[in-house]
Each structure stands twice: as C-alpha cells, then as structure tokens.
Amino acid sequence: MDILVTGGTVFASRYTAEYFAAQGLNVYVLNRGSKPQSSGVNLICADRHHLSSELKKHHFDAVIDVTSYCGRDVNDLLDGLGEFDEYVLISSSAVYPETLPQPFREDQTCGPNSIWGAYGTNKIEAENALLGRVSDAYILRPPYLYGPMNNLHREAFVFECAENDRTFYLPGDGSQKLQFFHIDDMCRFISLLINKKPEQHVFNVGEPKSVTIREWVEKCYAVLGKTPRFVEVSRDVPQRSYFPFYAYQYELDVTEMARIMPNLTPLSQGLSQSWEWFRDNRELIVRKPLFEFIYKELRGNI
C-alpha cells in the first residue's frame, strides 16, 4: 500500500509515518523539508498551500491527514491530490461545546468551545470542508494524545519533577479528570479503519476511563520509582501557569471505537514508553515557563 502522511516530522505525524513504515507500507510524508526526516519514508518536499503537480502523479491507498487545522488546510490538500482511496483526518475533542452533556457522543452537534477557542472552531471547519468533498472520509476526535515522540511539555514536565524529587504543585485537590489516548493506539485504529472500512465514519477515540490529575502524576512518578509529595494550589491561581493542562474536565464516549478495537495500551505502560523516549530526546521538548512560575509565584505563597 502507498500511504501519504501530512507532516511527518513532529510527534503525532512523525510517529504515524514511522508506524506505517514499520508495517512494511510505502509511506510518503508531505512537509517543507525544514526539519530532520524519519528514515524509511519518502519525502515529498512541498507546502500544502502551494501544491502544483507534486501529488498528482501518485495514487494513494490512504491519506492520513494529521496536520489540518482549518478548512483551508483540507481544501488546499484536496486540490493538490491525485487519486486516493481512503482519507483519514485527525480532528479533536475540541469540536464539542463544553455546554453539552457528557460524555460527548459523535452524534452531538459540534460548536464553539470557550476553553479551546479558535482551535476548536477551526477543527470544525476542517471537518466540514472534508465531508463536503469526501463524504466517506474518516474523522477521529481524540482527547489528549501521549506517548513516545510527544514533544509537548506535558508528561515530560512531570518526569522532570520526579527526576529531581520536586514537590508537585497540584491544581486544587487533584480530582479533575483527564482523558488520554496513546499515539500507538491511534495508529492501530487508523489501520483498522483503512482495512475494515466500517460504516461509521466519525469516531471519538481515547481511553474509556479517565484518570484524575493526582492519579496521572502518581503514575508518572512511579515510572521513575518515585512517589510525589503534593502541595495543593488554590483554584484562584491560573492552572496553566504551573500545570500543563487547562482547568477543563471533559469526557468522550468511545463506545464505537471500542467495538472495533477493544484492547488499548495500559496507561502505566504507555507512560513508561514516554519516559524512555523523553530520557533520550529531552532537547526536543517545547518547554513552557511552568517551573519559573512555580519558583517565583507559588513557593511560600500557598
């Protein structure tokens, strides 16, 4: 099979490209060539917004669009493509308004989310642009992705705290829940969609059970054989100033995904894989000034 993966240089798109290449498929990546490329893939060096004939000569068994964030992204890629069989778009759980009853279901109406703002409305635009032109495309709506190659300052932040035996500053009592999805599970599910071609075309994906912030931090510390000491931070302090996730709890109903792929990577195992990658690639993390805020604003003022 010939597969096109958009991006292919950072976290989700890079892992996706390498995953399918490891399956023995002929993987092409579309990016501008400004970052190091994975081995075992074929680079199509171009900007998706300025395509001429770079893609027209190819027939792709599947297009896996990991990097569309708005309608223009989708439309410009479709304009530049030649023939293809399947199209899979990685969208987001941010398409659901926080005012809807939870857990969010695929048949609920999408709309603006005040937490995610333009990111969510742009993803809705991307979904609508795709379905308006490729009615049988597949759309995935994940919660927080994690796993090897995650260059965001999320589990990496907690690992750094554990490494240095730091006290962990916990939002409130730590009971806010987070829902995750391992990047390898996402790739496995994409593979199942391409091969099984289920009738449903829009899927929430993710762990069926959320974890509290406290539980997640404990699991991250446990990977390093550590136990965190917690200090609870007042809800009056902006959470994203000292913790990598918004003060926003949501849950996706992933029943339909589970019918097709019931077995997922256990969270502790996935975090161990995250740690192993981070330990050897820490220079790739896009850090946020979380530690600076903790040191300047929180110590002695809680």
CATH class of the largest domain: Alpha Beta
Describe the largest sheet: 7 strands, parallel
Distance between the termini: 57 Å
Order of helices and strands: EHEEEHEHEEHEEEHEEHEHHH
Q: Which band does the percent of strand residues land in? A: 15-25%
Unreliable runs, pLDDT <50, ≥5 residues?
none
What does the radius of gyration come to?
20 Å
Give the tally of structural domains.
2
Structure notes:
This protein has 302 residues and is an alpha/beta fold. It folds into 2 domains: 2-146 and 181-204, 3-Layer(aba) Sandwich (Rossmann fold), CATH 3.40.50.720; 155-180 and 207-298, UDP-galactose 4-epimerase, domain 1 (Alpha-Beta Complex), CATH 3.90.25. Helices cover 34% and strands 18% of the residues. It contains 9 helices and 13 strands. The strands form 4 sheets. The protein has a 7-stranded parallel sheet with strand order 3-2-1-4-5-6-11. Strand 5, helix 3 (118-133) and strand 6 form a beta-alpha-beta unit. Helix 1 crosses helix 5 (183-196). The longest helix has 16 residues, at 118-133. It is globular, with a radius of gyration of 20 Å.
Quick rundown:
With 302 residues, the chain is α/β, with parallel strands linked by helices.
Lay out the secondary structure.
Layout: E1 2-6, H1 11-22, E2 26-31, E3 42-45, E4 59-65, H2 71-80, E5 83-90, H3 118-133, E6 138-141, E7 144-146, H4 155-163, E8 168-171, E9 177-178, E10 180-182, H5 183-196, E11 202-204, E12 211-212, H6 213-223, E13 230-233, H7 255-260, H8 267-281, H9 290-298
Parallel strand pairs: 1-2, 1-4, 2-3, 4-5, 5-6, 6-11, 7-10, 8-13
Antiparallel strand pairs: 9-12
